[in-house]
Amino acid sequence: MSSQIGVEEFHMVDTIPLTAEARAEFGKGAARRIRRADKIPAVLYANGHEPVHVTLPGHESMLALRQANALLSIALPDGTEHLALPKQIQRHPVSNHIEHVDLLMVFRGEHVTVQIPVVVTGEPEGAVLVNTERTEITVKAEATNIPAHVEVSIAGLEVGAQILVGDIVLPDDVTLDDDAEALVLSINAAASVDEMLDAGEAEGAATADTEAAEGDSEA
After folding, report:
1. Are 185 and 131 in contact (CB under 8 A)?
2. Residues 39-52: what's their mean pLDDT?
3. What's the Rg (C-alpha) of the chain?
4. With 215 labelled, which of 29, 60, 200, 209 sits at a CA distance of 20 to 30 A?
5. Shortest CA distance to 118 belongs to which of 149, 74, 159, 158?
């Protein structure tokens, strides 16, 4: 069971301005000095052009990159401005601070392939379990018209209901670039207390049998 779902109003990704500085020093030592100054080393890539190495403001970039598919308007030291999407963000494994960013230059009118978050809204009918398989879907969208997310409503859905990727309504000029038959989520029956107790007892018995069998083989 599936149904066409979505929202009539879509929120698009905002364009966020950032001012970049030229970067002439490279290597781990230079990168550490940049980060100590609350800045982020970055590389701006463009098809057919040499990569541009820059330094981005740390706090502003961190806030901007919290948004999925953040569309950045990068002001370069030579006075030019370029639109860019984050290609890869490297973070510290402990602090989660941004250590390096790869950016991909894009152009107005250009269609890009991006993954956008799926936001689930509403409450299903009765005591059920919502089994989520996908939290993102892949779409093609114009670079300045990327949805911030898509919503799926599970309000009133009952046991057995499913939402597939192809069920999600997309804005105009945004097309699906994903498996339409892939499962986004399903509504399943919640196990009763007795069922959970029975399952626990069965698991305990199976573990005891396995341990006994292992003991016999060792003997």
Report:
1. yes
2. 90
3. 24
4. 200
5. 149
